[in-house]
Amino acid sequence: MRVDPQAPLHQLADECQKVVSSLQKKSEKREAPHKRTTQEYLRLAATLIKRSLYIPGGLSEVLQATECSSTFYKRLAAVQYTLLQHHEMLMARLAETTDAIQSRHLTHQLNFHLKRLMQLRESQDIGFLPTRRKRHSKRQALRGLPASWRHDLYKRADHGKYALPILVASLTGCRPAELQHGVAVCREIDPATGEDFIAFCIRGAKVKSEQGQPWRIIKYSVSDPHPLIREICKFAYCSDDVPIQEVKIESAVNFTVEVRRLASNLWPQHKQSVTAYCFRHQWAADMKAFTDGDSVSRGLGHASAKTRRTYGTAGQGGKDGLTPLAIVATNPVRTFTTDPRRQSVPESIEP
Hints:
This is Site-specific integrase. It comes from Pseudomonas baltica. The chain has about 350 residues and is of the alpha+beta class. It has helices at about 5-25, 35-50, 60-65, 70-95, 100-125, 150-155, 165-170, 175-180, 225-235, 250-265, 275-290, 295-300, and strands at about 185-190, 195-205, 215-220, 245, 325-330. It folds into 2 domains: about 5-125, no CATH class; about 140-340.
């Protein structure tokens, strides 16, 4: 009985095809990657596969060598795309193989290919293993700062181009990106009481169909004795003819850099860097100590009650915190409950 010399080669190719089929079945519902993405995948996979040659755990260890789950799954996608492309090339080469030398060379390639395919499938089955890094929230940076840190920072920046943005961020907890849009500072009078108040109109960032608040308004009484309110009144009432003024920054990154620089000059011994998001955490802390949870969410520009948990704590608010007259937003706050009586009632965006 004559034995086909290429039978082991075809058997090896069949084993590779079985693994490839199982990988394709898992990802058949995914959309095909964009051309630019595939180019990035090929570069990333080439780096990972080359690195795996010098690591005892091979490709599996290389794929898992990250503390970020998104990086892990991107690596999986890149390696799978590349190995499937390589598989097509090897199968085409198999059809053209005729002599023993070509067969030996292709057998060597298929053995390596099968090993990588199996390590990829194993990594997919196991999933992301490393313990995720604990996120360092900027609210931790508030510890050790003086109660007047926002006013101190504003005074440090006084007469600079970031003084007013620092003041507005302190009074509203707005995101740097929202300052980049521009925040309107309005002088208004309550028609019912005749009381003067300052209103901040904020166009939301991070807004999608089910996420965020397109617009929100935060109001403070002009008679509020808080030092930050006294400072914004000087700005709002500097001209009787202009009831609405806009405070805007050109770059959110540059704003954060300047806040960090000013804070490091004021408190050089402070362990954590103070950034623009610290204003947001402090504002949330003030609100948690002063008002209800949904008002906190509206003021932060959130449509979900869940998100406010990561911003500030009531204990960080203190007795000298900010106390707005009202906080209104475009959409109601979702409270994740099936009881309609506990759903947040929307407040009108109209001041």
